[in-house]
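Researcher: First entry.
Model:
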Amino acid sequence: MSELHDECGVFGIYKNNENMNIADETYLALYALQHRGQIGAGIAVNKDGNMKYFKGHGMIPEAIPEKELSRLGSGRIALGHVKYSSGEAVDHENLAPLVMRYIKGQLAICMNGSITNFSELREELNQGAAIFQSNGDTEVIAYVIARERIKTASIEDAVKNAVKKLKGAYAIALMSPSKLIGVRDPMGIRPLCYGKIGDSYVIASESCVFDSLGGEFIRDVKPGEMIVVDDEGLHSYQVMESSKTALCIFEYVYFSRPDTVLDGVSVARARQRAGELLAKQHPIEADFVCGVPDCGIESAIGYSMESGIKYATGLIKNKYIGRAFNDRKKNNEYLMRIKLNALKHNVEGKRVIVIDDSILKGATSRHIVDLLRAAGAKEVHMRIASPMFINPCYLTSDTTPKEDLIASRMTCEEICRYIGADSLGFLSAESLPSIAKECKLDFCDACFTGNYPLDISDMSRTDKYSQKIE
């Protein structure tokens, strides 16, 4: 169970089916993206250029009550967003979609990712007397687009010009009074794809959304590509080119849902391959293999298949802990005790191999080992389906300081002693790309190697704008 929190999720739909209620469809889509953010959610609906929206804190049922969903009504275009933030709390102004009114009418926007030149852009806008209501990337991007729109003939031209000024990792979904637009960063670091539900076009962070809605996945948005949907259909523009691509490999390790197909590779299959490689690189005799729910399960199945050691359930996860509980938790240890429990009947007297997706700070791993030992496990061998996480990721929602990353200050043997396991093994950094060897893009693996695909000096500063919430 990774201590790195999920990415945000974006969704957009352009309705061409008369009997479709796009507020309802967007609401259901957010359930399919709930794993990418549990701290807040929002929906904006566009009917004839008039945009209604509602945003709230917590998971989907808490964030968007049924009565508010009904109040949104139906329209032609809609956006949805689920949010995670590295902050302890998020003000309402930082929830998305952001809906703003400017000289050309209304504009709604949401994003997943992080702008590395955030401070530079915000300072430039401040010098132009911009007034900000939030402290996130989304509002800065909206300002840049609005400024460009005044100088251009169309919203798509404004977006083309605006994104060329952005540096970083992002998947953006926005709607104007008459168009739905999606843009992916030029290296393809953040995921974005599109499909159809009947005759209606849909953009989303993950392909699992189309399956959940009974739709059809068409393809991933290419790095640097802009997708525009209007009453004439779908249009594609290659806005930016990059000499290299760098899809975040942690999407396969943890962020994405197992039933997602990302840039040509099944996430579930990639995780199974990680488990197969772990079995080859770190074999051990044991009675059974189990996975830490949820993201360790597929890798545990792969480890079992390769090693011939049976797979069984060793840990049970409480899936009903929402924001209300999190607000009342006394500390992380208290939360962990409620969140996970060992299945004593399976564990007692057994040699257990437990597979997790990653280790960041180490506290969760130590708690898992303690749980299994308390349930009577004879031996606990931990295997991690990714390399040692040694560097902060400045291109995702959650930037854990380097000094808090246990692998940046301890060896594998020291971590093993700290968490109390009988043995510990990580997937090698050299073999990690092979878990998604059919992927159409190259990877960003900076959290494991320190090889950042972008200049992150602005992100790693502690100036007045670097503590942004996105």
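Researcher: Second entry.
Model:
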Amino acid sequence: MSPASSPVDAAEQPPAPEPSQAQPTGPVNGLDRFFKITERGSTVGRELRGGLATFFAMAYIIVLNPIILGSAKDMYGHQLDNGQLVTATVLTAALSTLLMGVIGNVPIALAAGLGVNTVVALQLAPQMSWPDAMGMVVLAGVIVMLMVATGLRERVMNAVPLGLRKGIAIGIGLFIMLIGLVDSGFVTRMPDAAHTTVPLQLGTGGHLTGWPVLVFILGVLLTMALLTRKVPGAILISMVVMTVIAMIIHAVAGLDPKAWGLTTPQWPGNPVALPDFGLVGKVSLFGGFEKVGILTGALFVFSVLLSCFFDAMGTILAVGDEAKLTDAQGNLPGVNKVLLVDGLAVAAGGGTSSSATTCFVESTAGVGEGARTGLANMVTGGLFAVGLFLTPIVTMVPSQAATPALLAVGFMILAGSVKAIDWSDYTIAIPAFLTMLMMPFTYSITNGIGIGFVTFCVLRLAAGRGREVPIAMYAVSAVFAFYYLMPALGLT
């Protein structure tokens, strides 16, 4: 079924340009030609809106990454400076995102990876110095680049069957929807003191209370209404409107800044903050191995590598598919350039002490606005660069105003991918099903991919169709199986 023949697919396409803005049949200038804007059915306006939407959807990382890394101590009791962490986080995100736009020409922004920064802060740093820990991140990035150079990483991606790729995309859609619900406070973690097996609850204490949650609910309704009406810039319009409303509510109601979470919707007293580059280059490549030994050090690098590799793979496949950049087999043309930049970003994150930098699933917010090229990354990366000096301003958009975009994009991913899975073939349907469930339920893209891969290989063997499975899939599944068995083997 072609995209034009499906009402669901048609609904997820960016709104058609107004008659006065009809797209030309060929590139109109050098910018258009370089980024292939017209060729991919986009416009400069859509790319600009998409870049803005992606930035606001992921700007929370400027605050969150320093909190995660800054709250941990290395084996000597040293903590990283918060101001320096902000600079390192913003600098690496800006450079990596700009590089991805210029080299990869895809609307995929990058920043410090959540999950990986926790591994660095809680597993690596306590057993070595901070430079040692960041050196292991750099090594993981170098290995990723070597895998790209040898073609191994692309072969692994191309070995994934189309049905499982769709399962990965759906899983990411569900995952970002859960992220949106949690970050907004619409869903919260059930405290252990409750002595219940139920992990999540509605709002606080099972009830929706407080102005911030109302802002989120209104934002979701506004976003969905604008999408239903096919209003150009629906996601970005909703973000801006709800940010203004949140600022008014915060000022009038006199709310505690903590009520909004990491970012508070108020104009900062001092909007300018000078960057501090003190952490850049503070790296010891092999010092960690002297502290923990060769085997443990290698396992640490392996853990960082695995998370970076497959988190990025899942995001690239999902964003590429949602942006209609993939071919009939679900492959992304020119993916090797995208993977190379991702490897560079991992190493750069270690080099600046901001932890591994990787592709962000929040890029789907920009794709939902119509972004199809690297020009959107120029906007996102440029805003991160501005954030080096204006961090207080760029972090005043509350998560309650930005996260409705994640629910909207999650819906569009699901709507466009569910029907592409052959549900009659259990050897692909069950792995795809497990993949899409495990991502949100384990709060990890990597776990969802790993469980799906292992299940796919086992079921194909059980069905007597083992020869249909590419060797690369067997190899990667064996790596995942080893990774999951590491605790049982006493290797963690």
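Model: Note on the second entry: Confidence is low (pLDDT under 50) at residues 1-24.
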